[in-house]
Amino acid sequence: MSPNKQHEEENRETAGAETGYDEISSPSAHVPSEVNELFAPENSGRHLTNLLTDLGERNLYDAAVQCNRCGYCETSCPTYMLTGRETISARGRNQFMRMLLEGKARDSAAAAESLSTCLLCGACTSACYAKVPTPDIVLEGRRTLDGYGDNFFARAAVKTLLDAPALFGFWLKLAYLVKMTGLPRLAAKMGLYDFIGMPGLADAEGAVNKVPLRFAAEILRRDPALRPGGKTAANWAYFAACGPNYLLTEVALATVRVLRRHAGEGIFIENQCCGLLAHNYGRLEDAREFARRNILRYEELKAVFGDFPLVADCASCAAFMKSYEQLFTGDEVWRPRAKAFAAAVRDILELIPAESLSHAEPARLEAAGRITYHDSCRAAHGQGIRKEPRAALRKLAGKRYTELPESDWCCGGAGAFAFTQPELSARVLDRKLRNIASVQANTVVVGSTSCLVQINAGLKAAYPSAKAVHYSVLLDSLTSEGAKLPADNAKINL
Ligand code: SF4
Ligand code: SF4
User: Fold this and answer.
1) What fold is seen in the domain 3-142?
2) Ligand 2 center to residue 410 CA distance, Å?
3) Looking at residues 415-428, what average pLDDT do you find?
4) What is the residue with the minimal CA distance to atom 3 of ligand 1?
5) FRET partner for 330 with CA separation of 20 to 30 A, picked from 78, 255, 383, 469?
């Protein structure tokens, strides 16, 4: 037996002892009836019809059994590495799904824990030879859990964002005004969030220092140069993801400036939310509706301007939009349209060629100090973007750029994970902060909203001589005529 084969066998034995995998039938087993029930037409609002995997289109069961329990992904999985628990590793999660579908899961509480503690980071898929889509499998598993997606506030937020975005903006500004009064801090101190069973909200409140009262979309739509009307050509269209639009306005404005400087004139698409929030928190039909509206808007503009890249500056949203096709695998009309839309999506991280940049002025680099790059999960694992931002940063910063150890280790933000699993999230973040401190970085470049908020909250408490800065903001500050790197977090609306 080869050493690799022996390693695989040993790994499988360990896994079997912990989770009862040995009861699992062979991969050629028939698809259990539960799978067919999940994918029945009446369940399409709650479950995807099929998953698009590297080995082709598969139903949930067939996707989960692609995992052969080899264990090569174990050391990539943050939740496994921090706890050493097989049941909260990628292999454990895939096997739980298989057992659930075969009706063999003995401990439903353990299955729920296994599924709800996954960061959906995708590090396991990157490490896996078969590219088993564990995050998609886990999400499908979560959608089977009782009460998943039934949170009143999340449901109301998604519905308002979908049907009345202006009202959503109004409520958000009202919430921001309340935040400025200090009342949420008072509520946290009084233990109100613990009382209503959502202790993570206290951390959410504390993670954001400053909020904008003018959203990016409101500013961009007033810029005549960004309006599609009267134009016949556009080199790009900017998609305002919810984070940069509603919270990190400076990121959105920096992205547009960088695009203008390096790619010529373009337009603002006046998009809706990409639908990721609805997708990840149990409102699949709402996610499809967000997607349809964005696809329609893109098609309208494509009829006028022809092909153009649709640029987003939050890696989570860009990765999700690149996967729109998976939302519509059972829909012959929308599937090809979703595929065409996805092909146009670009993350700002991959768009600016290093060749178009020159070494930044020493005075500006001085302000940034030692620069490093954190791979946002949905950029590195979700879109395969690693080389492009590094090449650009090396070109701009030269020797001031340094590689971050374990740069693609998740920061623990992971959407709402920091609020739903605060203890595990803090442990994941702690390792990221130690790595940042180990290279004595001053500026940590990131590509997604969640990473920016999470890493800055951690740095502020543990390593205040460094700050996280969005890639667009750093590029803008190092390449523009008059702009400077924000001197503190407040100036980038954190
Ligand atoms: S997810 Fe992939 S790498 Fe991980 S145990 Fe399964 S087959 Fe192996
Ligand atoms: S998505 Fe991340 S946390 Fe979830 S199983 Fe994979 S590596 Fe582990």
Assistant:
1) Fumarate Reductase Iron-sulfur Protein; Chain B, domain 2 (1.10.1060)
2) 9
3) 82
4) 128
5) 383
